[in-house]
């Protein structure tokens, strides 16, 4: 991992800012952006299950049943003030972030107020048969009976309190094999003013899947995430801005990291770092009516505060003043962990949905975000 330093002037004093770049992937993505993104990074179509026509397409009844089973498990978890009932029905991003939420819940012995959220009927988007893992997308409206938070809410990319904003949620469900149960893989909230695109539909009501190496789009679907990451890391100056639209989930995350580092604070002279990088969970894509694609993928957002000596890997390391850690991250550290004085790192596993238009027809728009904290360490 390479780090490049940029500087900005804070109100009180000059801080040292560093953005993290996720290595070759983002460098390649930036080059693709300048070239129009019609070829480049090796793509894998296994995520879309290409080449297995014998596997049946997901039916509407099957999707509804899978959704209802997960919804019942989630309701049981809420009623019992214990998220464990939901765990067998979730995977990927949802499994990680619900597990962390359970850890935080147990630490503080807290629960959501009864009736705090209400969901409307779901609409299902069913892909054509494409092998295992099978998957489908659901869209549901969600409203909250909670006080609205304003300002820069700690830990929220883009500075928006995504967790309790009325919105439409984009849910991705997966089935790993013929004998596996359906599980919720991610929930991403549509950003204000955003909506799902119209989809191409075949004669059976199913939507064609899109190869992750499709070069007829503005960018190949397998580089949508790295291109977004380049803008999150570098802001509007990134070459990737030529193909990625500005908005709360691109330049907005960049602005929020520079302004407040997701709510973390650092002593004078410490380095503040951030970087968006690819996750281990494969992307999927559906064909839109205009020939583009809706791409669903996940990324890790790393945020770090550390002394200049730690960044330079000095030996011996000299500790600095204590680094403040806000309460939501405390349960992710070992019990009794003192305030970090050398380095603090927090990671979020985030899910996204992006519209990748046909080549030459506008920019990629990142329209939805989900996920949450996945890791923290301190020294």
Question: What is the gist of this entry?
Answer:
The chain is 20% helix and 27% strand. It is built from six helices and twelve strands.
Helix content: 10-25%
Poorly predicted spans: 1-19, 21-44
Structural class determined from secondary elements = alpha+beta
- Strand elements, count: 12
Beta fraction of the residues? 25-35%
Major sheet size, sense and barrel closure: 12 strands, mixed
Explain what you see.
The chain is of the alpha+beta class and 379 residues long. The chain contains six helices and twelve strands. The chain has helices at 23-35, 60-79, 92-108, 224-234, 251-260, 308-311, and strands at residues 2-9, 14-21, 117-119, 123-125, 134-144, 167-175, 183-190, 271-278, 284-287, 293-306, 343-356, 365-378. Strands 1, 2, 3, 4, 5, 6, 7, 8, 9, 10, 11 and 12 form a twelve-stranded mixed β-sheet that branches. Strand 11 (343-356) and strand 12 form a beta hairpin. Helix 1 crosses helix 4 (224-234). The two termini are 20 Å apart. Mean pLDDT is 79; it is low at 1-19 and 21-44.
């Amino acid at each position: 991992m390479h780090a490049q330093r940029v500087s900005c002037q804070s109100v009180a004093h000059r801080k040292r800012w560093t953005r993290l770049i996720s290595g070759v992937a983002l460098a390649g993505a930036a080059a693709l952006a300048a070239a129009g993104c019609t070829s480049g990074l090796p793509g894998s179509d296994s995520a879309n299950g290409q080449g297995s026509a014998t596997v049946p397409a997901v039916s509407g009844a099957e999707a509804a049943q899978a959704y209802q089973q997960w919804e019942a498990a989630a309701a049981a978890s809420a009623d019992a003030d214990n998220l464990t009932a939901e765990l067998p029905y979730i995977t990927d991003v949802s499994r990680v972030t619900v597990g962390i939420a359970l850890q935080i819940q147990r630490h503080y012995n807290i629960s959501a107020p009864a009736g705090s959220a209400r969901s409307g009927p779901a609409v299902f988007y069913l892909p054509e048969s494409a092998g295992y893992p099978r998957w489908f997308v659901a869209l549901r409206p969600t409203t909250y009976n909670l006080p609205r938070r304003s300002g820069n809410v700690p830990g929220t990319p883009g500075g928006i309190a995504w967790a309790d904003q009325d919105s439409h949620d984009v849910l991705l469900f997966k089935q790993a094999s013929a004998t596996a149960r359906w599980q919720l893989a991610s929930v991403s909230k549509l950003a204000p003013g955003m909506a799902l695109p119209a989809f191409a539909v075949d004669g059976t009501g199913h939507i064609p899947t899109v190869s992750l190496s499709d070069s007829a789009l503005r960018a190949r679907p397998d580089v949508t995430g790295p291109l977004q990451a380049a803008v999150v890391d570098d802001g509007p100056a990134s070459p990737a801005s030529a193909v990625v639209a500005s908005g709360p989930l691109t330049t907005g995350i960049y602005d929020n990291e520079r302004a407040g580092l997701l709510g973390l604070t650092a002593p004078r002279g410490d380095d503040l770092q951030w970087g968006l990088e690819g996750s281990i969970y494969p992307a999927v894509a559906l064909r839109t009516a205009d020939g583009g694609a809706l791409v669903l993928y996940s990324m890790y957002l790393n945020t770090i505060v550390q002394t200049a000596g730690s960044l330079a890997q000095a030996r011996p390391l000299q500790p600095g003043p204590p680094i403040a850690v806000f309460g939501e991250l405390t349960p992710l550290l070992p019990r009794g962990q003192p305030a970090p004085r050398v380095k603090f790192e927090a990671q979020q596993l985030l899910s996204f949905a992006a519209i990748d238009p046909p080549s030459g027809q506008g920019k990629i728009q990142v329209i939805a975000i989900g996920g949450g904290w996945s890791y923290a360490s301190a020294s």
